């Protein structure tokens, strides 16, 4: 007789006479544990659904009160039904995921191999600035992710920035081929944890944002939201591209700088030097500009190698890792 | 030891204390392979070296606790690690309330985080530090010192005490007559104890009259009839247990975990980026270099056969948990630190009814200390101009850990 134990998105098989801890460890799912005899309490977890037999769990380690509250010792508890367990209760709410049918309102070329796509929704979508939606590529059934450049109140017209990938199913084959205003697009969203903390927890601390290519999209929504909350906060937005031909939204971001004196937009060109712009990688530009990023939060979005380089750059300037947020544009076939 | 198939263990006669303290792994690896329960002459005792035999002895109904001779010489009687029956039950009931998970959860964060921050503030802008002396040990002793009621004893004094008690406790070498080979090695422990008494006696005087919420005040009063307190002579040996192991080991555990992570830079990076991995990193650190490497023992209460060896009643066996945690029967490439190895339980906190009483507290002290360290200095690197040396047989950890970072 065996039951399924679900923990952090993984499912593990656990025999009726096996402890939850033993089943998880054997399946390579780590959970804190030390004594394995029910005396230290390190392995305490919450049973979210299903039921366990507490076995020999001592009352000293697991009080009646805790049992009543759904806690269990993983090293002693055995399943008597399929169970779902969690660590400390989290309690963050997320916006419900929805299937959307959108109408293309506008497709415009804004830079080399780069398009802005505006999608009109019949019903507003609840999301946080920085999240993304998934589009269904017509005909192929393939799904591709695109970040929203919107702020949360721009909830009826979704703005996407798309970069062409040669031979790409979604881009070369559709978004840069037949797509036109009036088309219908199937989508799902919102997804992702790349967004600001709730307003009440946002202390207005300084922020560094680095986007590679169309990785700029969610950063536009995040930067605008952050500045609306705290108009004078320091916000450095780096846009890394190969050449000046890849730059876009210079006017829009320039205006943002006029409204907010502590906002700075810094385009950085890696491959095609131009005397009007900084050269090199945006992550290096950040390291040159900022001596210490203690107390800052960091926002990285774009190709995975750029995001990795950004994490290193931020840590080099001693930004606390839990304040480093990242969104990688991982190609579909690498996920 | 007369069976002919038994490998020749004459090599054990040449094992010295100095060798074990420098690196016990070589000798114990051979013990695990040849004789998982063996008499080791320099220690004057049987030694259990594999995971299976350590666990068996530690949890067997045919054994009870006994303090090692050098430990008993250092702590006196009744130390919690060396007593049984009612006295052990009373001492456990005395120390456990403050260490219960529900209790620890209430205050651990407020206790340890400010301490960790305070020590970090002293050096976080220096770009270099020696973490054992500047961080791991101070955070460890200050956290427990404040819990015990020793707020007025400087961290450096607490560090000095555990170091002296530790060397005295593990001054285990005996000569061919079973006498201590280095009796003068107990002097510094005696001197530390005299100093401890001079400082703690007046505190005890005060707590007897004016109980407060410190752990030692509770030790004196809890469970006693009104108007009575536990005798100080009765609790001092256990105070020494705390002032040695409980003070020293979380510092050892943090430092070993850091050295292990430095040996795997990609794993260090992972842990710095995701603090949720810190407990797992610590668990592997304690397995990799167990802070209480070989300090506690059990004694047979009747004739028993363990690992094929017949032991008469009254035979002490030392538990080498640090060796058990390198058992190749359990762990592949045990001398490698690997955050991602199959996460099997380890024996770093011992087993049976004398298993560590401070597991929950110790794990959280180490976790919070490393969280704060990585938060303040996410670009930490080992200073490769300086080596890292581990020392100790009874208790083991890095003697120093030099690091640098860009400021
Ligand atoms: C969370 C998330 C958010 C995203 N947001 C955006 C966004 O806002 N804007 C945007 O333009 N893209 C974004 N992407 C990437 C996007 O989802 C697609 O992967 C991309 O548009 C390519 O899809 P495709 O079907 O055209 O190419 P595919 O058919 O999937 O790929 C064709 C070939 O090109 C390779 N390839 C794919 N992408 C790249 C690349 N960038 N560089 C080099 N080779 C590549 C593939 O490995 C494959 O071999 C995001 C990805 C993720 C995971
Ligand atoms: C990482 C840090 C620590 C480690 C690795 C550790 C490990 C151990 C080990 C191996 C034992 C002997 C177990 C046995 O003989 O089977 C022990 C005993 C003990 N430990 Fe710990 N310990 C640590 C920290 C602490 C702390 C912080 C406290 C108290 C606050 C503590 C309290 C005790 C007590 C009271 C005992 C004696 C238990 C008994 O004999 O009944 N320990 N510890
Ligand atoms: S691991 Fe100690 S109580 Fe479960």
Automatic annotation (TrEMBL), chain A:
The FAD-binding FR-type domain covers 97-197
- Name of this chain's protein: 2Fe-2S iron-sulfur cluster binding domain-containing protein
Keywords from the named record? 2Fe-2S, Iron, Iron-sulfur, Metal-binding
Organism of this sequence: Prauserella endophytica
Q: Name one Pfam family in it.
A: NAD_binding_1
Cofactors, names only = FAD
Q: Which residues form the 2Fe-2S ferredoxin-type domain?
A: 1-91
PROSITE patterns listed in its UniProt record = 2FE2S_FER_1, 2FE2S_FER_2, FAD_FR
UniProtKB/TrEMBL annotation, chain B:
InterPro entries of this UniProt entry? Cyt_P450, Cyt_P450_B, Cyt_P450_CS, Cyt_P450_sf
Q: Gene3D superfamilies attached here?
A: Cytochrome P450 (1.10.630.10)
The cross-references to SUPFAM superfamilies, in alphabetical order and at most eight, read: Cytochrome P450
Q: Which Pfam families match?
A: p450
Q: Which organism does this record belong to? A: Prauserella endophytica
| Membership in a protein family | Belongs to the cytochrome P450 family.
Keywords in alphabetical order = Heme, Iron, Metal-binding, Monooxygenase, Oxidoreductase
- What name does UniProt use for this protein? Cytochrome P450
């Amino acid at each position: 007789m065996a039951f399924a134990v679900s923990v952090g998105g993984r499912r593990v098989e656990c025999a009726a006479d096996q402890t939850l801890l033993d089943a998880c460890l054997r399946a390579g799912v780590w959970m804190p544990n030390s004594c394995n005899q029910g005396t230290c309490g390190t392995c305490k977890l919450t049973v979210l659904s299903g039921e366990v037999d507490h076995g020999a769990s001592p009352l000293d380690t697991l009080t009646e009160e805790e049992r009543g509250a759904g806690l269990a010792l993983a090293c002693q508890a055995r399943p008597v039904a399929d169970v779902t367990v969690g660590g400390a209760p989290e309690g963050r709410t997320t916006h419900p995921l929805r299937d959307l049918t959108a109408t293309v309102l506008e497709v415009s070329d804004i830079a080399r191999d780069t398009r802005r796509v505006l999608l009109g929704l019949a019903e507003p979508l609840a999301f946080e600035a920085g999240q993304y939606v998934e589009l269904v590529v017509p005909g192929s059934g393939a799904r591709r992710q695109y970040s929203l450049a919107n702020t949360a109140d721009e909830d009826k017209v979704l703005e996407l920035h798309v970069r062409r990938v040669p031979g790409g199913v979604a881009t070369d084959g559709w978004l840069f081929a037949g797509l036109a205003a009036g088309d219908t697009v199937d989508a799902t969203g919102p997804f992702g944890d790349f967004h600001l903390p709730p307003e009440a927890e946002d202390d207005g601390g300084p922020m560094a944002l680095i986007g590679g290519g169309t990785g700029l999209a969610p950063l536009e929504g995040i930067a605008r939201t952050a500045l609306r909350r705290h108009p004078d906060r320091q916000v450095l937005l780096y846009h890394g591209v190969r050449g000046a031909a890849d730059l876009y939204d210079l006017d829009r971001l320039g205006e943002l700088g006029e409204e907010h004196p502590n906002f700075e937009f810094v385009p950085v060109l890696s491959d095609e030097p131009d005397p009007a712009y900084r050269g090199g990688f945006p992550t290096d530009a950040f390291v040159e500009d900022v001596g210490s990023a203690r107390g800052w939060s960091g926002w990285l979005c774009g190709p995975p190698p750029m995001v990795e380089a950004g994490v290193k750059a931020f840590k080099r300037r001693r930004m606390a890792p839990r304040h480093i947020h990242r969104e990688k544009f991982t190609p579909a076939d690498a996920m | 030891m007369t069976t002919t198939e038994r490998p020749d263990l004459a090599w054990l006669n040449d094992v010295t204390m100095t060798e074990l303290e420098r690196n016990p792994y070589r000798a114990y690896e051979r013990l695990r392979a040849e004789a998982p329960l063996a008499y080791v002459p320099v220690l004057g005792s049987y030694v259990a070296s594999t995971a299976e035999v350590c666990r068996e002895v530690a949890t067997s109904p045919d054994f009870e606790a006994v303090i090692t001779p050098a430990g008993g010489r250092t702590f006196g009687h009744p130390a919690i690690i060396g007593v049984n029956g009612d006295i052990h039950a009373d001492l456990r009931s005395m120390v456990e309330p403050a260490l219960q998970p529900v209790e620890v959860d209430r205050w651990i964060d407020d206790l340890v985080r400010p301490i960790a921050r305070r020590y970090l503030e002293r050096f976080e802008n220096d770009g270099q530090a020696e973490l054992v002396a500047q961080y791991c040990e101070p955070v460890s002793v200050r956290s427990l010192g404040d819990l015990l009621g020793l707020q007025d004893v400087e961290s450096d004094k607490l560090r000095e005490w555990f170091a002296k008690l530790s060397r005295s406790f593990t001054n285990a070498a005996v000569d061919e007559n079973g006498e201590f080979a280095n009796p003068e090695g107990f002097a510094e422990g005696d001197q530390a104890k005299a100093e401890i008494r001079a400082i703690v006696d007046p505190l005890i005087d005060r707590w007897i009259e004016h109980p407060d919420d410190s752990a030692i005040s509770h030790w004196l009063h809890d469970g006693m009839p009104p108007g009575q307190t536990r005798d100080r002579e009765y609790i001092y040996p256990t105070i020494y247990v705390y002032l040695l192991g409980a003070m020293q080991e979380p510092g050892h555990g943090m430092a070993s975990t850091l050295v292990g992570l430095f040996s795997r830079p990609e794993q260090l990076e992972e842990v710095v980026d995701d603090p949720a991995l810190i407990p797992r990193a610590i668990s592997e650190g304690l397995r990799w270099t167990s802070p209480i490497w070989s300090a506690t023992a059990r004694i047979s209460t009747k004739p028993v056969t363990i690992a094929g060896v017949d032991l008469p009643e009254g035979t002490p066996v030392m538990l080498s948990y640090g060796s058990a945690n390198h058992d190749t029967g359990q762990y592949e490439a045990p001398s490698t630190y690997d955050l991602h190895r199959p996460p099997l339980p380890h024996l770093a906190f011992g087993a049976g009814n004398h298993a560590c009483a401070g597991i929950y507290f110790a794990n959280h002290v180490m976790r919070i200390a490393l969280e704060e360290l990585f938060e303040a200095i996410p670009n930490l690197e080992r200073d490769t101009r300086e080596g890292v040396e581990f020392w100790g047989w009874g208790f083991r950890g890095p003697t120093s850990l030099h690091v640098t970072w860009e400021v």
